TrEMBL record, chains A, B, C:
It comes from Halorubrum rubrum. Sliding clamp subunit that acts as a moving platform for DNA processing. Responsible for tethering the catalytic subunit of DNA polymerase and other proteins to DNA during high-speed replication. Residues 33-122 form the Proliferating cell nuclear antigen PCNA N-terminal domain. It holds the Pfam family PCNA_N. Homotrimer. The subunits circularize to form a toroid; DNA passes through its center. Replication factor C (RFC) is required to load the toroid on the DNA. InterPro entries: DNA_clamp_sf, Pr_cel_nuc_antig, Pr_cel_nuc_antig_CS, Pr_cel_nuc_antig_N. The keyword NADP does not apply. Belongs to the PCNA family. Signal peptide: none annotated. Keywords: DNA replication, DNA-binding. It comes from the Archaea. This is DNA polymerase sliding clamp. GO terms for molecular function: DNA binding; DNA polymerase processivity factor activity.
């Protein structure tokens, strides 16, 4: 239905001659593969309930900071990852859990059409045989998008997502914080949990960190619920590492008592995620 | 043990010469495949806790209406679907959850023997190496079996159970009611959920409805917990569509603001189910 | 790291010349396959939270009795099942749930190194790339290990673990106790649950009991939560039969109103478990 109209409009610009009521909308319609949109939603849901999507000729851009100001997720999807983009651009605040529900009937390469309806400040979602009219949220009521600080880092490495997740979850067995310790001499990262009675450490060496640059011994301590979810804290969020599967290569940066930044790509390298967790100041 | 005696008795009537105490019972013994009985129980459990089974030479017949009088399930299994039936017929009220438990150790083609014990108003269940003595419930204390109304319908179609379930569950994302709308001109059924802020519709056309007769545009609105279970209402029942798998062809009938009836067959077309959900009168 | 040092020390005794601080410890280090240690932990966790492990040149020995004094588990692992044992022996009280967590990253043949640190009364656990420093519990604060009574039994049989578990779980459908009844004449064991209204029995005959010695008709009644877990009682323990898989051959002994003892082997017949449940005196 509207989906194919929209595609035509984007494709050849002839829609203006069609004289339908959707005409003005076509420049505010994009088509994206279901699995790409799903990854965006899954990653954002680890840290916020609502976010402002900026979608249009330039692709998609969303940045969100959690209510406690500890975690941040920034997602960019280049226009080349879209099946089709309009000539316009629209910002819309969306409830992520609802959006997750509404696209749950689509998967893989299924095209999902998103059309902005400025008069109702809503978005029309179409996929498979499903059509949804979803109300937007006034962007003014959503927490401002964060500035992403530039940080010099002394430690940088790549690691498979599941290897890092396993190491971090080990720490969760004894504590609700995890300490990353770079050991320059050993070219190893120690991921340590320090509990009241017990202590657990997982050592990631050259085998686990294929590209590592360790400029200094550095320690950073981070909240586990933000990384792997709320088993010890009651957080309703899943932890930023949770949507990631084995096979996803992460790039991780941190410095002494500074935020940790975690980067990865998806959608054939056309989607980019940057996540940041503030350090917990150590008091022992 | 008793199971094989019972089968012999049914098979050749020689049991009368055996002079055992089970002799008088043999005419009140039936043998049914586990998977057939399981389907009966699973379907009834979607709407009631207890039901009156009528079992005997004519097969099995159970009808049940839910406590709120909104949903109804009627199950018939022809005698040909039984491994063996006696010459008698017995009615017995049974707790469905317990019956489900007691047959859980049997599966597939396992024969399940049901023998009525009139003196204790109980039923003996035998399968595999398990024997159960299960108390019946006085049929007088169970809600009367419903009359099934004859209803002229203006819309009739067949649809795969999973296709209908998916469409109905989409509506559940925004509402606790679903609206079926027949569109004669498009030969399509729109399954619509109308929420406070959002609206979702799934369009089933010729591909999804292989046999459709649409005599008029009609709308019927139905309660979602009765169809797919209680995520939004706290119902303890599963929803009448829940026991059905992809591959089960449903026949659906409804008319403007009238009940919807859903039919399907099982047990090699020897088992028949009719389910009915009363409409919710629309007030918008 | 320390793991390989420890192995060397055990292997050839050269560690004394290394002059390191771990030197004195080496005789208190053992290496065991992950799956063997996991089985020990899983079986003990069915009955207690904490237990005193005795580990060393003689292998491993743990005995535990549940807080209510109804169930008992005794586990022995011969030194031959270890990859390496020291020349010393150490007793240490351990929290079983934590130990279960700490070895969860290892599996199958992964070697797990356990080193006793007498000065801190702690144990160091090493496997894969994980190192844990786990505090011990003062053995004096842990319930005394039970004496295992010698009992003459009149019934003895072998049975596959899943066959016995299924029979016992059937009884759980109607009661929170199960009765074992040996029938000498039939060479069968009846596993019976007797509920308020319903009764269920599972008959295990020669097919299910390959080696059976029935010296007398005997009945023993046992608490179901201790056997298969707490669905009817709120017990936090899993039931002693729960960690056992199909294919594990159990040897079972009981007598009229006496405890039931259940034995099985694991770790290529080098691990031995004896479990005992006290009888419930029948009062009907």
């Amino acid at each position: 239905m509207a989906a194919s109209d929209a595609e035509d409009a984007v494709g050849d610009g002839d829609a203006a001659t069609a004289g339908t009521e959707t005409e003005a909308m076509d420049s505010l319609t994009v088509v994206i593969r279901a699995e790409v949109l799903q990854q965006v939603v899954d990653q954002l849901l680890t840290i916020v309930d609502e976010a402002i999507f900026r979608i249009g000729y330039d692709g998609l851009s969303v940045a969100a900071v959690d209510p406690a100001n500890v975690g941040m997720v920034d997602v960019e999807v280049e226009s080349g990852a879209f099946e089709s983009v309009g000539e316009g651009m629209f910002p819309i605040g969306l409830n992520l859990q609802k959006l997750d529900d509404y696209i749950s009937g689509s998967s893989g390469d299924d095209p999902v059409t998103l059309s902005y309806r400025p008069e109702t400040r809503s978005i029309e979602i179409e996929h498979t045989n499903v059509e949804v009219e979803m109300s937007g949220i006034d962007p003014k009521t959503i927490r401002d998008e964060p500035d992403i600080p530039e940080i010099d880092h002394s430690v940088e490495f790549t690691v498979d997502a599941s290897v890092l997740t396993d190491a971090v979850e080990n720490a969760e067995l004894v504590s609700d914080h995890v300490k990353f310790e770079s050991m320059v001499d050993d070219e190893a990262l120690v991921v340590r949990g320090h509990g009241d009675t017990d202590e657990i450490q997982t050592v990631l060496g050259a085998d686990e960190l294929p590209n590592a640059t360790f400029d200094a011994d550095a320690e950073g301590m981070y909240s586990l619920p933000y990384l792997v979810g709320g088993s010890t804290s009651g957080s309703k969020y899943a932890g930023i590492l949770k949507p990631l599967n084995s096979g996803t290569e992460l790039r991780v940066e941190f410095s002494e008592e500074m935020p940790v930044k975690i980067y990865y790509d998806f959608a054939d390298e056309l989607g980019h995620v940057m996540m940041m967790i503030a350090p917990r100041i150590q008091n022992r």
